[in-house]
Amino acid sequence: MSASEPVRQGTDDADERGTWEDVRDLPPSAKLVAKVLEYNDTMTQQQIAEETLLPSRTVRYALNRLDEENVVDSRFSFADARKRLYTLDIDC
Q1: Which of 35, 36, 37, 42 is deepest in the core (most CB within 10 A)?
Q2: Whole domain around residue 25: which residue ranges?
Q3: Which of 46, 82, 81, 40 is nearest to 63 (CA)?
Q4: Alpha helices, H only, the chain
Q5: pTM for the complete prediction?
Q6: What distances in angstroms separate CA 36 from CA 3, 41, 53, 64, 82, one per listed residue?
Q7: How far apart, in whole angstroms, are the C-alpha atoms of residue 72 and residue 89?
Q8: Tens digit of each residue's pLDDT (9 = 90 or more) over 20-78
């Protein structure tokens, strides 16, 4: 860490929510996935792929990038524990 980097004390990445500003510099696929989640609330990766017409691998990459920016929340599906449900988690 250099002297010019801000020190964040008492913060945890899991507690921080992202903003649309965080999405701005992400790849187009991540922006598309974010918009689809904004309109559809909660979806599985397969549902996102079907809605966006993106390959599953691209959706997985987009979700990982969104997760790095703390703008997406995921949890296991109660209906099928093999699947995860994704929700947009952005401060307005």
Answers
A1: 37
A2: 17-91
A3: 46
A4: 20-23, 28-40, 45-52, 56-68
A5: 0.78
A6: 40, 8, 11, 15, 22
A7: 5
A8: 888 899 999 999 999 999 999 899 999 999 999 999 999 999 999 999 999 999 999 89
Assigned token pair, 58: 């691209």
Identify whether 23 is part of a domain.
yes
**Is residue 3 included in any domain, yes or no?**
no
Query: pLDDT at position 92, please?
Result: 61
Q: CATH number for the domain including 65? A: 1.10.10.10
Buried b (16+ CB within 10 A) or exposed e, 42-73: ebbbebbbebbebeeebbebbbebbbebbbbb
